[in-house]
Amino acid sequence: MRILLFGATGMIGQGALRECLRDPEVTSVQSVVRRPSGSVHPKLRETLHGDFSDFTALLPEWEGLDACLWCLGVSAAGLGEAEYRRVTYDSALAAAEPLARLNPGMRFVFISGAGADSSEGGRTMWARVKGATENALLRLPFQAFVVRPAGIQPLHGIRSRTPVYRVFYLVLAPLLPLLRKAFPAWLTTTEELGRALLRIAKEGSPKRVLEAADIPGLGRPGPGSAAG
Ligand SMILES: NC(=O)c1ccc[n+]([C@@H]2O[C@H](COP(=O)([O-])OP(=O)(O)OC[C@H]3O[C@@H](n4cnc5c(N)ncnc54)[C@H](OP(=O)(O)O)[C@@H]3O)[C@@H](O)[C@H]2O)c1
Question: pTM here?
Answer without folding.
Answer: 0.96
